[in-house]
Amino acid sequence: EKAVNLKKDLAEMQEWMTQAEEEYLEKDFEYKSPEELENAVEEMKRAKEDVLQKEVRVKILKDNIKMLATKVPSSGQDLVTELNVVLENYQLLCNRIRGKCHTLEEVWSCWIELLQYLDLETAWLNNLEERVQMTENLPDKLDVINDALESLESVLRHPADNRTQIRELGQTLIDGGILDDIISEKLEAFNARYEELSHLAVSRQIALEQQLQTMRETDHMLQVLQENLVELDRQLTSYLTDRVDAFQMPQEAQ
Q1: How many domains does one find in the chain?
Q2: Which CATH number fits the domain that encloses residue 151?
Q3: 63-115, pLDDT tens digit by residue?
Q4: Which helix (H) or strand (E) holds 11?
């Protein structure tokens, strides 16, 4: 009777494993939204816990069968053979569910990391847009133009590491068919805004550099002219003081 019960337990265990495999491992999942992906991660976590909880039952079953095989070898040997098959299948099921759970957790982590990098770069784009707008309608003053240029250049020196991460994470998920529509849309919008703002910012940078150069050249010319006028005024004052007749002066002084 005990052998019959143990044989029944083995059959029930095998049936449960078959159902678990069908439910958790043989489904074709399509993760088209973050909610679907998150639900799949939580489901696989529960599956892993469920499978591992059966470990105690498997151990008890194993101990009982080995004890029976020791006491009644004739009826226990067949059970030991069946037990070995069940143990092998159980271990395989545990490994596969652990693997799938780990994979889904990695995918979810990849998605969250992508969102974090997108948030960082979007904040930078917002800052860049603000700095570009600050360069419009500036007063025609050298120090103001110079400060605006330095401010814009400081934002443009932003490293490209985050954008590299966004591209690689996005491509990894898209290649795996994970949230591909949503990610493609996000990346397309981000890249379009990045290209537009970067082009505008560089154009404003060049314009400010040219404006600054023109203003410096003009200031230099005015300074030279002012120095020449001061020197000419000094010479003329000297001529007047010495009562020199105009026709006695050099031609340029006349």
Answers
A1: 1
A2: 1.20.58.60
A3: 888 887 777 666 667 788 888 888 999 999 999 999 999 999 999 999 999 99
A4: helix 2-24
